[in-house]
Structures are given as structure tokens and as C-alpha cells.
Structure to design on (1460 residues):
């Protein structure tokens, strides 16, 4: 039954072209609230602070605001949060009914610090934000907020007067609205061909789209009427803003003047295009601003459809124009203005004041948590395809990897593995013995991921459906019945993941005795969790669908977050809380990083899509989601062999490394393109495996402190303006710089090596290059330009085996890249690779490795921890070294032994042979 | 392939007989053939000769040699390989990375000596199984090869037959061509007098017809005269003629006196002899007073009704059908049923057969005999020409068949114009070698073309092990369907499996004796395998 439907749907969607059908998705103009809000131009704000209502407690300041046009009052709450953050909350003082406030995203009620009143007069109040002479100034008329440091304004709110709060109201046809809010809006709306009437009647202040809105054939009933909110932020001195994923656009955000704003609304966009601000699968309403002086962040905690406008006073200017300003001394300070517009909910903004990128990451992590620490194997290579046809196919692909000596850890099964797209089941003909299959993989120390999507086939013989229906766990339509829509299985219901009881039940379905055929080496993939509704407006859920008392409108962008959360909790529970879960999701929200990995959705086998994978994952990393990747090879269409090879080489250096392909594309397992290309792909995958200790350590840090794994260069070189808009190269942690080849037919590329006075070492040739230069690198098809920073130590495992688990006890090779001052440091993190014991029982090894004064030492960074490893130090490679006369290894038992070494004078590479010391103990190698 | 298997089988048997299963001392992971390079307590030179190390660095779990040869028994070298003796089964090399990785790769368990993995020595069991299957394979190969010889023989004979047939056909073609030419002359010779006689006859008949026509006209004129001459005065007057409005020259509905006079050639009345000239001017229009109603109009309304039927009802039905087609699962490119040409029925305009038409009289006997003679010449010619075409077709088919690449010894020739089927739960697959592959749903639905014969597509050393069929039915948004047929040695000619590893790319396994290789002789085995 679903076959023909799928075919029909695809036929409609595809209709012969490969580009996204933009007509399926709203522009700001087609989204009534965005159009209304955007029509409001900067100017004098009608809002005034009623200073006499000011209340200051230990934790917050409250103050009423009044809109002088309609006399509606708002309540402003200001908090000074620990860690140099300010929270600004604005709600209606007395809303007709409660407005939605996003739950479950913040990991706790953010701890506050007291605000102190510095001064107050009839124009406003000045509050101290503690250190650094930071002050918060509340101006009364018109209302605005300024955060200052010294004499500098860091950020202003409502400085352009774009604070707009559509208060909840009773519908016009039942009651005449006595307010004048819409007067202004009325004028804007006048050019709409409403009823052809020149003059709207005085009592008809309802604009199109306030109480009902139709897009294509879908009508959105709006029982609560208009409820949108908007606020502007000005960032003096700022020319660069980043973040607000997910968009297939450059890392540095563009100004949106004259175009659509960046849109945040989780959508299943079929065949998305690159370089535009259209909404995609996930939404994280966090923007970072950066200048050579300071990095800050704005976290707009709102889960409704959101649009973000960006303008800049320098963006339009040519280089010549900017020069002229400079010469004439007439240059105004560069400034970026940002405006957030959301359809419902409240204004709840966290201003993260930095001042460094690291600080902003920590600040954001303190609010929404950090990246889940994945099982080590999840950082290895994943082989996926829609679909591996049957158990024999899975076995054959598994064997193919061994036959071609290419490592892999996970093989994935897409929707066709199920019995008629009924998740948690298996196709009885294609996968009759799933446990045999899983055991076969387990015997090779490999794993599997099966897909479990959140749309549930409406079928009274399907247990999952029956239980959800009988428990009343489905999302309801506006009429109160179970909401139904079309998806892969045909007619489907959508469990209400916002309901904690529903999530608990869902999690319990992953128990080994519930999910038949599952085993401990089987993990989960949540696709279509925007949610995707093939026949819904913009291919998603109707906004008037109900999650308990709340409309989908209020929490749309949270749905995917909850799906992934419930699934991750299920995987934890099935192991009795012992094992770390691994869940991949397509839709996400702020905080999703706590539950697993995300990928950039259904991309295409095109060079532009390979290129865009870098800024897309960098943008996610900046806002907490480090575990990001793009489908290697491209999902739609078939890649050329060159593109496939280049994608493997790029993917090998991106956090989530998975090949995936559409059902209708030819097979593309790595060995299908001739021995030369098989060898190239094998080499890329092997480089990934050798580097797994470093990846694992980076993820440990991401988990521990919220620092991104994959970083734009400016994060580590915040004052180097040359790096601010770079997104064709990136850093892994601090120490590896990667500039993958993403140009077709490339013979060479120019990489920028940052850091004046620093050096970088080519990780393949060990050649040394100076920092702060554009380096031209000739490339061949085997080139993956990667550089190690002088001053760093990177652990690798040189014995690449068929899966990461097979490498568990293998020894380490340390790559010590000396700085010009002959110094280097790094870390080594080891644990069991898959349980929570590192956290619960402090079972891990975390060591600091440092090279100074011609001695390399390993010291314990975590004295309270306990773990034993079989791994030992196999080899130490020191780059930029000089030849010693001898090398002595000193171990804690007081023993000293001479190490043999080899010195390559041409490259200044010193290789110490087989120190043999256990990786978990203290040791020192002294060079003389 | 089967040759190699047999070879291994023999080597195992030999090993058993000579007791070579006894382990000879050498570093772990070193094959017997390389034992001499690993001499205990002597410096070891890497097998690539690049460097020399002391012997205690062999298998010391650190990779010293570029080529990995110093660590045959550990996982230290990324490019090393480990030799398992696998006594009871066949020896094997595995990549060094599989040593102590917790997975049992060697059946003698020697690769997992320090990983904690508990491996069972399965070599004997595997050896036994392999021997069994090898024996079976050997038998199959032997019998298959014999069958193949037969096939080759038959193919050769078939080929000779065909060649003979072709030569024969070439001869008869020549004869026929000559005959055709001869009969063409006969035909043409016979047709000339026939044509003349026929023309003569026709001309005579034409003249006769004209006489009859004139006679009839005269009669009609006389009748008209009598009809018009109302007062029977022997003259037709203006007044008498004026009642015949159909004769109105300007068709204005009234026949004036002047007009009538004009018709009568300016006279007031005419007698029978003058009427002759008047008659010739009016006879086409003149309506006999007995049948003055115009004929009923042609039945056009009926035609319109037919058109209405076509435009109103047909599209709806058609749209319905289309939906049905769309619901056909998977087979999105389902072939549309041949639409019946729905032509509106042509309305027969009733042909006015002149009832007075007289049929042509039969040919005279002389002409008839000429016609008969010419007809016979034509028939004779046609018959021979048809025969020539048939021969041509036969020759073309034969040449095509002879031209096919049926393998080095034409051993695949027997597959030509045969078809082999395999029935799965959903479909019946059909392989017609050198022609096409197709798939038909078991429970209704049309056949899908999975590819037409393309070429032999095996690897260089065994080109004839794989057949490729391509340019099958197009896939929705994808390539045309294609099928790869893998041929393996078997006694039977049969399709053993089909699969679709990639969308619209099918894989079929097919056994045939035609690919069976000659089993190796014992001598060769002995010579080729002296190590044990």
C-alpha cells in the first residue's frame, strides 16, 4: 500500500528537476507574522519603562513596560547570570492566557548573581554587572537596554525601536478591540488588495493572516490570533556574526537587506540548495558576534517559527568606500544590527558576554549542556545506504570491507528493513534473523544502526500504534482527534514527544525484550523528526495541531529535540544506565547536543554540497553541536569518482563520518571504483582511524567544557581578521588545521596557516611551515592537506584494524610538534570507550603530555580517576627536533633506560623507538 | 577457479601423505617458503633489503622494516602479513592488523595468541568440508567439462551445418535470383499484349457506354418535352418552362420571363428539334415534376453525436486507468496498455448507384486468355521472389548466428535461441542468452525488460565468465535497467539466483557446462606444488 503513495508523492515532489521547489516553502512575505513584523521599520519605540514599577531582588530586576499606543503592559525581567551572562525576559504583564515558555532546553534554572543599582533618575537606571566595570543601562523613554563596558557599548536592545509584542486578544468579530496597535500596521496593510476597499473601517483592524492564514492548500486556523514577538539588537564594533543554524550558507552570516531573513523552522526540505537563508531540518537560535576585541552570543530561547534579520552599516560598502571613510576620518564605528522575530511565545534572551570565544562556549554550555560523549566507535567510520537489501547484503558488504582491508564500525539500515515501515519491526523476508546478523557483526566487533522514525503507521494490527493510540499519546489535531498525516508508511500518527509520559513509554520500547531482534551492538537513527508530514503545510505538521494545551506553533522547533532525547534515554535505560547511547537525528534544537549526533540531511552529490558541509558543521559547532557530519558522497544523485574520493577525504576529518546514498543511486561501496580509488578511500579511512585517540579526546573536552571539536580558525586566532570569514578550512581542536580539497580537478590550493611566530607541520611529510602565511600547496588526488600546530602533541594509533574496538588495547604513537621555542603540550584521554563509568566511577586516564627543556613527560591530569589500560607508548615522533646524543626513559619505579632513536636530518624528525611504557603511568624521556 | 581448488585439494592430500603437517621451527607468522630469510641469531635484513636489524627485533612488536617483514607475527607493521599454517586445511596469509584483534581469522587459532579471544581450531572440520565440496566440485567440473566437449563438438557441427546451409542457401539464392530475372522477363512479355487487349476492350466498352448514355439522354429529353409541353401543342413555351424554378440562372427565387426566354435561346417557344439545344443547357438542373423534393440531407448529426461520445466519455475513463497504473507498486514505469485506437466511426454517405449503370461485358476469349497468361506469369514471378526473400532472411539469420561470439570454441552456441527461467516469490525471471533478460510478476502485470544482449564482460583473464545485458526498460529518474549474468561451471544449464544489488541493476547467476575448465592433471599438481 505505501509503495504507490511514495511513488505518487515523489512524483509530485520531483517533477523532473533537481532543485528545491521553493514554492513549497514560505518566504517572509508569505508568513503573515513575519510580514507584519518586518513591515515595522526602525524608529521611535512606543514602549516606555515604568520606573515606578521597578523591583530589585537578590536574583532579578523586574519592571513594567507600557506601549503608549495601545496601553498594553509588558513585564520585563532582568537577570545577571553566573559566568558573565545577562538574561532578558519580556512577557505580557497580564496575558489573556499563558504564553509558551520553552521547557527542558536549559539544563537548570541558571544560577544568578545579584544586580546592584548604581544610579537611578527619571530617565532610567544603571545597574552593575559585576566585574570589568560592566553596566546595564535601562532607559525609560523610549525603552532600551544598553550593556556597557567602561565607556563602550557592547550591545543595545530596542535601540532601533523594533520591540513588538502582539498581545493576546479576543477575536474582533466577538469584541471590538479598543487598541491602536494595529494603526501603524494598518497603513502597511493598506496596499494589500483586501476587499478592494480604499478605507478600512475603524473597527476593522484585523489584518489578513491574523486569525487565519492559508498557504497553498493549507489553512492554519489561529484560534489564539496574532501572538508574534520581535526585538532588535545592535552590536557596535561588530562586523561578523555567526551561528543560527541550520542553513546551507557561508559560515559568516550575510546581511539580509533586500532578501529574506534567515529562517529557523524545522522543515524537511527536499533537495535543498546551497547558499541561501531558507530554513532546514534543525534550528538553534543562537548567534555569535565576533570582532578582534570581543566575542559575544545571543541565545533567543524560543521554539516557534523564527526569522532573523541582519544588517550592517559596512556590509554595503566597497573596500574603496571603507578606505575613503578611513582617510576622511568620517568612519562611523562598524555596527551589525540584528532583529529576531518569532511567531509566539515570549522574549527570553540570554546575552553571553564572552569576552573570548572559549568563554562564550562555556557560557552557552552552562545553559544548555554539552555534547554527549559518544561511544568511541561512533567516531569511527559509518557505512550507510538506503538501503542494504537483506541480511545477505549486509553480510556481503561487511565482508567487502574485510576483503578490501578498509575499517568500518557501523553498518546502517534505512527504512526498508522494517516490516512495512513499522518501526521497531523487521521485514520478515529480508531480515528474518536479525540477531544472527547482529551477532555476525558483533563477532567482528562491529555495530549496526537501525532507523526509528517518529511517524507511526496507523494500523490496528501494529502494536506500537495501538499502544500510543490507547494511551492517548498522539499529537491531536485542532478538532481534538489524533492528528494524522502522510509519511513513509502511508497514513501516520505522530506521538507527542513533548509529553514526558510519552517519552518514558517510547524509551521503554528500546528494551531488548520490547524491540525484538535488537542487541547491545544495535543503535538508533531518528530521521524525519522535524516532523516531516508529506501532505502537511511546508511538508511538516499543521501549526494548529495540539501537544496537550500547546499548539505546534509554540513548540514546533522542539519536536525533533524531544524525539532524539526520548530515544537516547531508551538506549541508556536498556543497558541499565551503563552504556552510552548513540542516536543520530536530522532535526534539532538548542540542547540537542546532549543527546547525540546530527547530520546535514539530504544533500546532493555535488561539489557545492561538499564545500557547504564545512560551514554547516562549523556553524553547528559554534552553538554546541559538535557531533556533526554530512552524507559522504552526497545523498541525492551519483557522485563522480573524484567527488566521492574527495568527500571521503573531507569526511574523514569531520566529526560524524558516514557515507550514505539514495535508494535510486547506483551502489557506491568504497571498492566499486577500481583499485586506485579503493586505495585512496582506504587511506582516508585509515587516517581517520589512526587519529581516533585525538578525536576521542576532543569529544571528551566538548563533553566536559562545551568547546567545539571542529572550529573556525577565528576561534583560536580571534584577533586575526584574515580568518573571520574563512570556511574552506578549519581546525580540529586547537592543534590540527585541515584544508580539504573541495574543488573539482584541483592541482593546488592555498591554505592559510595562522599565528605569527608559530609553525605548522604537514602531518604527512613533516615539512615545517611558518604561520601567518598563505601557503600554496600542490595537490594530487591523494592529498588531504592537514597540518599540526607547532607546540602540540597528538596521540595516534598507527595499527589500524578492521574496527575501532579491535584497536582498543593497541599502543600509541605520540606526534610531538615543537614550537619555535622548542615547547609542546598535549593530552591523552583513555577510558573503556563505551560506558558511563568515566563519569560515574571516574574510570579514565587523563594525562598531560608536555615537552620542555628537552624532556617529554606524561603527568596525571586527573588524580581522582582510576583506570588501567593495556595500551603502551609504541613510538614518539618529534617534529622540528635536533639530534640528541642520547635519549633516556625514566619511569616511576626509578628505572632508567636508553631509547634507540632515528634522526632524519632533512626534515628534523626524531623518532624514539619503543619506549614501551604503559600509557597510563608517569614517565619522562630526556634528550641529551 | 575450479582448477585452483582442485590443485589445493591435491596439495592437501600430498601433505597428509608426506607428513608435512609437522611444524618446522621458524618465527611466528613466517611461511615455510620464507624460512631461510629468518635465521636465528643472525642479523635480519628486511626482505626489501632496505635495512638490517638484529634478530631480536624480529617479532618484537615494533615495526622496523619499511616492508613490514620484521614483524610477521605481530600487528606492529601496517603493511605486514601473517601466515597461518592451518594444518588440516589450507594455509593462508592474513593482514597483520588481524593478529590479536580478538577475532579468529586462522582456523588453527594462531592469529589470536595474545588477545584473550577463545578460538577453536576448526581446520580439520573446514578441511573435511572443503574436501567434500572440492570433490563435488571436481566431479561437477569433470562431468561439466565432458559435457562442454560435447557442446563444443555439437557447436562445431552446428557451425559446419550452418556454414553448409549458408553455402547451400547462397547457391539457391543465386538460382532464385536468376529465376526471378527470367520470370520477370516472362511476366513483362506477357503483360504487354494483356495490357493492349485490355485497353482495347475498355475503349470499345467506353464507346458503347457513351451510346447508351446518349440514348438515355434523348429519352429523358423527350420525356421532359412531353412533361413541359403542358398544352401538348408540340412546343415548349416560356410560360410552360417558367414553373421550373430550379432553372433560375441567378438563383434569386424567381424565374422571370426574360430569364426563361434566355433559356429558350431567345425564342418564345421551341419545338422538339430546337429543344435539343435548350435541353443541353438545362438538363443538369432540371427536375422531373414527379420528384421535385430535394434529397434528404446527409446525416451529419449522427457524426457529431459520435464525436461527443469520444470527447466526453473517453478522457474520464482514461484518467481512471492512469490512476490505476500509478498504484502499481514499484513498477513505476509500468508499460501503458496499448490504447485502442478510438476512431470515430465514419458515416457512410450513401453512394448513389446509378441504377441504370450497366456492367462491363466480359472479356472476349482472346483477351481473357492473354490476361490469364499474364496472371500466371505474375504468380510465378511472385512465388519465386518470395522464395528469394525467404532465403535472404534465412541467410541473414544464419550469418547473424555464425557472427555471434559464442566463446573460444563456440561452447555457448547451444544457448542461442533458448530461454531459462527462475521463479522467485514475486517474479519469474527469464534469461534468453544472447537475446534478453526479463522479469514478469507472478500475479499479473506486464513483463519488464531487464536488458538486451550487450557483450561478454568478464575480467581479462576470463572474459566469458560474465554476460552483460543492457538498455532494458528505463527506470524512473534513473538509468535503463541492466543485468549482469555470472556464469559458473555446472552440469545443468540453469539460472540459480537473481538479485538487484543496486536499483535497476540486476545480477543473475547461471550455471552451464560451457564454462567448466579442464580439470588439472595429477602431474601438473605435483609439479606445481613442491613446497610441501
Amino acid at each position: 500500500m505505501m509503495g504507490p503513495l511514495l511513488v505518487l508523492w515523489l512524483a509530485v515532489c520531483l517533477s523532473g528537476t533537481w532543485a528545491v521547489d521553493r514554492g513549497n516553502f514560505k518566504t517572509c512575505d508569505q508568513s503573515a507574522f513575519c510580514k507584519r513584523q518586518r513591515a515595522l521599520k526602525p524608529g521611535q519605540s512606543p514602549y516606555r519603562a515604568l520606573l515606578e514599577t521597578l523591583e530589585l531582588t537578590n536574583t532579578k530586576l523586574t519592571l513594567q513596560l507600557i506601549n503608549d499606543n495601545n496601553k498594553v503592559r509588558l513585564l520585563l525581567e532582568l537577570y545577571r547570570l553566573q559566568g558573565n551572562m545577562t538574561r532578558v525576559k519580556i512577557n505580557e504583564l497580564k496575558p489573556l492566557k499563558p504564553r509558551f515558555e520553552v521547557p527542558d532546553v536549559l539544563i537548570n534554572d541558571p544560577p544568578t548573581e545579584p544586580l546592584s543599582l548604581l544610579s537611578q533618575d527619571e530617565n532610567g537606571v544603571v545597574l552593575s554587572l559585576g566585574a570589568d566595570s560592566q553596566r546595564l543601562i535601562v532607559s525609560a523613554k523610549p525603552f532600551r537596554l544598553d550593556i556597557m563596558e567602561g565607556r563602550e557599548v557592547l550591545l543595545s536592545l530596542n535601540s532601533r525601536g523594533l520591540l513588538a509584542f502582539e498581545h493576546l486578544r479576543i477575536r474582533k468579530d466577538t469584541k471590538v478591540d479598543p487598541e491602536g496597535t494595529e494603526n501603524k500596521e494598518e497603513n502597511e496593510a493598506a496596499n494589500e488588495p483586501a476587499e478592494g476597499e480604499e478605507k478600512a473601517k475603524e473597527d476593522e483592524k484585523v489584518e489578513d493572516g491574523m486569525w487565519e492564514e492559508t498557504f497553498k492548500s493549507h489553512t492554519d486556523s489561529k484560534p489564539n490570533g496574532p501572538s508574534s514577538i520581535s526585538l532588535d539588537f545592535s552590536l557596535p564594533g561588530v562586523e561578523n556574526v555567526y551561528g543560527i543554524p541550520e542553513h546551507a550558507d557561508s559560515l559568516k552570516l550575510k546581511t539580509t537587506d533586500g532578501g529574506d531573513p534567515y529562517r529557523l523552522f524545522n522543515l524537511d526540505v527536499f533537495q535543498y540548495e546551497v547558499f541561501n537563508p531558507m530554513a532546514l531540518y534543525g534550528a538553534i537560535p543562537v548567534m555569535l558576534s565576533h570582532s578582534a576585541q570581543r566575542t559575544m552570543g545571543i541565545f533567543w530561547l524560543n521554539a516557534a517559527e523564527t526569522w532573523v534579520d541582519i544588517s550592517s552599516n559596512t556590509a554595503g560598502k566597497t573596500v574603496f568606500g571603507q578606505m575613503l571613510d578611513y582617510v576622511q576620518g568620517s568612519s562611523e564605528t562598524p555596527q551589525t544590527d540584528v532583529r529576531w522575530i518569532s511567531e509566539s511565545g515570549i522574549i527570553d534572551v540570554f546575552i553571553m558576554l564572552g569576552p573570548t570565544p572559549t568563554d562564550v562556549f562555556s557560557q552557552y554550555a552552562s545553559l544548555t549542556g554539552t555534547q554527549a560523549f559518544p561511544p568511541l566507535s561512533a567516531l569511527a567510520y559509518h557505512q550507510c545506504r538506503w538501503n542494504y537489501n537483506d541480511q545477505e547484503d549486509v553480510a556481503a558488504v561487511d565482508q567487502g570491507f574485510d576483503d578490501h582491508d578498509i575499517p568500518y564500525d557501523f553498518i546502517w539500515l534505512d527504512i526498508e528493513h522494517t516490516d512495512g515501515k513499522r518501526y521497531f519491526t523487521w521485514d520478515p523476508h529480508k531480515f528474518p534473523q536479525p540477531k544472527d546478523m547482529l551477532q555476525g557483526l558483533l563477532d567482528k566487533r562491529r555495530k549496526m544502526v537501525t532507523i526509528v522514525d517518529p511517524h507511526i503507521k496507523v494500523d490496528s494490527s501494529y502494536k506500537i500504534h495501538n499502544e500510543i493510540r490507547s494511551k492517548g499519546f498522539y499529537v491531536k489535531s485542532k478538532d481534538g482527534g489524533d492528528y494524522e498525516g502522510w509519511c513513509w508508511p502511508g497514513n501516520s500518527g505522530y506521538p507527542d514527544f513533548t509529553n514526558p509520559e510519552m517519552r518514558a513509554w517510547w524509551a521503554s520500547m528500546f528494551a531488548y525484550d520490547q524491540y525484538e531482534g535488537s542487541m547491545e551492538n544495535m543503535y538508533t537513527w531518528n530521521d524525519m523528526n522535524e516532523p516531516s508530514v508529506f501532505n502537511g503545510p511546508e511538508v511538516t505538521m499543521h501549526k494548529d495541531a495540539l501537544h496537550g494545551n500547546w499548539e505546534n506553533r509554540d513548540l514546533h522547533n522542539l519536536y525533533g529535540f524531544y524525539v532524539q532525547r526520548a530515544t537516547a534515554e531508551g538506549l541508556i535505560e536498556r543497558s541499565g544506565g551503563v552504556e552510552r547511547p548513540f542516536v543520530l537525528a536530522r532535526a534539532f534544537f538548542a540542547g540537542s547536543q546532549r543527546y547525540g549526533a546530527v547530520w546535514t540531511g539530504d544533500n546532493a552529490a555535488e561539489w557545492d554540497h561538499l564545500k557547504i558541509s564545512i560551514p554547516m558543521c562549523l556553524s553547528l559547532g559554534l552553538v554546541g553541536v559538535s557531533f556533526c557530519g554530512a552524507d559522504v558522497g552526497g545523498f541525492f544523485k551519483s557522485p563522480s569518482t573524484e567527488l566521492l574520493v574527495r568527500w571521503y577525504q573531507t569526511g574523514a576529518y569531520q566529526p560524524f563520518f558516514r557515507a550514505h546514498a539514495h535508494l535510486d543511486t547506483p551502489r557506491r561501496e568504497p571498492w566499486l571504483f577500481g583499485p586506485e580509488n579503493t586505495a585512496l578511500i582506504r587511506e582516508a579511512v585509515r587516517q581517520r582511524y589512526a587519529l581516533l585517540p585525538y578525536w576521542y579526546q576532543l569529544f571528551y573536552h566538548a563533553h566536559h567544557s562545551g568547546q567545539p571539536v571542529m572550529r573556525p580558525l577565528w576561534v583560536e586566532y580571534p584577533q586575526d581578521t584574515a580568518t573571520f570569514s574563512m570556511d574552506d578550512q578549519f581546525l580540529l581542536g586547537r592543534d590540527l588545521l585541515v584544508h580539504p580539497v573541495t574543488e573539482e580537478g584541483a592541482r593546488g590550493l592555498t591554505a592559510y596557516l595562522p599565528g605569527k611566530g608559530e609553525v605548522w607541520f604537514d602531518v604527512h611529510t613533516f615539512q615545517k611551515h611558518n604561520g601567518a602565511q598563505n601557503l600554496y600547496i600542490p595537490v594530487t588526488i591523494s592529498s588531504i592537506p592537514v597540518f599540526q600546530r607547532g607546540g602540540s602533541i597528538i596521540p595516534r594509533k598507527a595499527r589500524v584494524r578492521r574496527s575501532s574496538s579491535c584497536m582498543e588495547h593497541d599502543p600509541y604513537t605520540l606526534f610531538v610538534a615543537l614550537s619555535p621555542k622548542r615547547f609542546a603540550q598535549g593530552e591523552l584521554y583513555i577510558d573503556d570507550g563505551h560506558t558511563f563509568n568515566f563519569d560515574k566511577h571516574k574510570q579514565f586516564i587523563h594525562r598531560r603530555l608536555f615537552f620542555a627543556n628537552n624532556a617529554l613527560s606524561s603527568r596525571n591530569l586527573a588524580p581522582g580517576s582510576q583506570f588501567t589500560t593495556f595500551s603502551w607508548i609504541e613510538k614518539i615522533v618529534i617534529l622540528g627536533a635536533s639530534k640528541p646524543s642520547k635519549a633516556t626513559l625514566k619511569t616511576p619505579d626509578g628505572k632508567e633506560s636508553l631509547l634507540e632513536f632515528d634522526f632524519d636530518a632533512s626534515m628534523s624528525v626524531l623518532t624514539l623507538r619503543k619506549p614501551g611504557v604503559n600509557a597510563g603511568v608517569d614517565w619522562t624521556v630526556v634528550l641529551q | 577457479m575450479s582448477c585452483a581448488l582442485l590443485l589445493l585439494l591435491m596439495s592437501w592430500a600430498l601433505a597428509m601423505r608426506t607428513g608435512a603437517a609437522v611444524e618446522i621451527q621458524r618465527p611466528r607468522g613466517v611461511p615455510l617458503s620464507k624460512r631461510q630469510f629468518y635465521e636465528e641469531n643472525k642479523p635480519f635484513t628486511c626482505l626489501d633489503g632496505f635495512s638490517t636489524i638484529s634478530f631480536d627485533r624480529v617479532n618484537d612488536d615494533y615495526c622496523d622494516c619499511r616492508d613490514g617483514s620484521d614483524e610477521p607475527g605481530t600487528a606492529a607493521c601496517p603493511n605486514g602479513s601473517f601466515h597461518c599454517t592451518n594444518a588440516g586445511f589450507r594455509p593462508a596469509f592474513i593482514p597483520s592488523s588481524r593478529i590479536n584483534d580478538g577475532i579468529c581469522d586462522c582456523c588453527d587459532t594462531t592469529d589470536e595468541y595474545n588477545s584473550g579471544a577463545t578460538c577453536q581450531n576448526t581446520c580439520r572440520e573446514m578441511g573435511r568440508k572443503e574436501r567434500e565440496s572440492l570433490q563435488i566440485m571436481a566431479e561437477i567440473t569433470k562431468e561439466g567439462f565432458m559435457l562442454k566437449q560435447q557442446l563444443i563438438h555439437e557447436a562445431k557441427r552446428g557451425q559446419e551445418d550452418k556454414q553448409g546451409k549458408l553455402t547451400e542457401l547462397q547457391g539457391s539464392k543465386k538460382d532464385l535470383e536468376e529465376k526471378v530475372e527470367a520470370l520477370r522477363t516472362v511476366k513483362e512479355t506477357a503483360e504487354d499484349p494483356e495490357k493492349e487487349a485490355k485497353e482495347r476492350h475498355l475503349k470499345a466498352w467506353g464507346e458503347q457506354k457513351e451510346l447508351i448514355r446518349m440514348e438515355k439522354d434523348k429519352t429523358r429529353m423527350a420525356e421532359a418535352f412531353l412533361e413541359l409541353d403542358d398544352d401538348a401543342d408540340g412546343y415548349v413555351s416560356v410560360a410552360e418552362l417558367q414553373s421550373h424554378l430550379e432553372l433560375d440562372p441567378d438563383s434569386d427565387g424567381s424565374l422571370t420571363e426574360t430569364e426563361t426566354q434566355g433559356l429558350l435561346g431567345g425564342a418564345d417557344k421551341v419545338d422538339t428539334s430546337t429543344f435539343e439545344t435548350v435541353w443541353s443547357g438545362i438538363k443538369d438542373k432540371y427536375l422531373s415534376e414527379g420528384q421535385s423534393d430535394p434529397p434528404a440531407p446527409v446525416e451529419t448529426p449522427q457524426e457529431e453525436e459520435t464525436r461527443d461520445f469520444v470527447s466526453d466519455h473517453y478522457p474520464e475513463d482514461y484518467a481512471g486507468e492512469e490512476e490505476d497504473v500509478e498504484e502499481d507498486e514499484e513498477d513505476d514505469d509500468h508499460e501503458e496498455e496499448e490504447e485502442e485506437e478510438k476512431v470515430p466511426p465514419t458515416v457512410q454517405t450513401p453512394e448513389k448507384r446509378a441504377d441504370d449503370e450497366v456492367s462491363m461485358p466480359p472479356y472476349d476469349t482472346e483477351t481473357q486468355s492473354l490476361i490469364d497468361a499474364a496472371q500466371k506469369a505474375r504468380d510465378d514471378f511472385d512465388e519465386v521472389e518470395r522464395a528469394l526473400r525467404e532465403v535472404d532472411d534465412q541467410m541473414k539469420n544464419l550469418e547473424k548466428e555464425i557472427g555471434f561470439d559464442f566463446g573460444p570454441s563456440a561452447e555457448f552456441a547451444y544457448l542461442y535461441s533458448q530461454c531459462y527461467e527462475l521463479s522467485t516469490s514475486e517474479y519469474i525471471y527469464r534469461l534468453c542468452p544472447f537475446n534478453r533478460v526479463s522479469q514478469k510478476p507472478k500475479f499479473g502485470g506486464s513483463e519488464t525488460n531487464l536488458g538486451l544482449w550487450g557483450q561478454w564482460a568478464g575480467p581479462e583473464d576470463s572474459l566469458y565468465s560474465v554476460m552483460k545485458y543492457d538498455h532494458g526498460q528505463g527506470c524512473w529518474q534513473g538509468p535503463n535497467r541492466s543485468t549482469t549474468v555470472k556464469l559458473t561451471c555446472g552440469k545443468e544449464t540453469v539460472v540459480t539466483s537473481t538479485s538487484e544489488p543496486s536499483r535497476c541493476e540486476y545480477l543473475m547467476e547461471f550455471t552451464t557446462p560451457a564454462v567448466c575448465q579442464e580439470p588439472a592433471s595429477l602431474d601438473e599438481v605435483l609439479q606445481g606444488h613442491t613446497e610441501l
